[in-house]
Each structure stands twice: as structure tokens, then as C-alpha cells.
Design brief:
Layout (H helix, E strand, L loop, with lengths): L2 H20 L14 H27 L5 H27 L4 H24 L5 H24 L5 H22 L8
Amino acid sequence: MNPVAFAMTGLAFGLWLNSLSLLGISAEPAEEDGPNPAKSVAAGGSLAAAITLILSAFWLIVGNPFGHEGVQSLFSGIMGMYALLWIGVFAMQWFGLDGRPIGNLCLLMAIMQIIHIIGYAKIIGMGTLHDWITQLVLLSYTILLFMFWKLLNGKMGAALVGKWGMVTVVGTLYLLFFNGGILPVLW
């Protein structure tokens, strides 16, 4: 399996469960004094994303599946950056920690993501529709990071972030199937 496909599978799980929770779907215990769904989101989504992203970041560097150091570094850097964030999100959800520092980290990551977007254009180019779609997906993550910064600092409502999170799920599925090599890129 291509490491991008593996990473995007876990990332889709994390984005899906967290977005649904932000939209209020299965966000409250099913019964009074029932288990906290945030812990299920943490384990099934956030931790799954962290594990697949960190393993894939490592896989890209050690395995060198793309055969080009710049591409390896670009995708490994992006995956590693998000893996570390998801570890923090998992801990915040599981242990009930203050989310503001994680939100502040999202702001730094939005800046880093913009640099990765520029790196993609320089290293890979923008010669195909596929490159443009990939860049739009990366931009959608930048917007989500900014929205999470606002959400976790009390400046934005959860539902709007959940809706945009679903947009990033669609983009992540694109990366999973096309950048992950499951389906051929025709454009």
C-alpha cells in the first residue's frame, strides 16, 4: 500500500468523527451517565489519524517510494506535522485538557501549511488539473486549521467548523484514492 493511501485513511477517520461531533451528531452520551463520546472520537478518529500519519511520514523517508528527495520531504513533512497535531487533539479529548494551546498550535500550522503549498508548486509543479485539486485540498486544511484556532479560543461556533471539516473529508478522500495510487489520475 502506498503510504499516502494509508495516511489519508486514518486522516479521513479523524476528520469524519471530529466533524460529526462538532455538528452535534453522537456528541452527547446516549444515556445519562453513559460513556463520553469524546473519548470514542479521540480513540477512533484522532488517535487513528495520528498513528497512520506518523507511520506514513516515517515510511516516506525510510522507504523512499517516490524516488525523489524533495517529494519525500514535502509529504513526510506535511504528514508528520499533522500527526503531531492529532496526538495533541487526542490528549485534549481523552483527558479533557484545555484546547486553547492546541488552537494556538493550529495557527502556527496554518502558516506551515502555506509554506508546504508553495513547496508543492515549486517541487511538483502545477501542470495538471490533479495538481490544482491537490493544492485546493491542502488549502482546505489551511482554512480548517484557522477555523480550529478560532473554535478552540472561543471565537467561532462548532457547527461551522464541523461543516468545513466535512469539506476536508471529501478532499482527503480525493488524496486517498488518487494521490494514494488506488485510482489512476486521468486529468
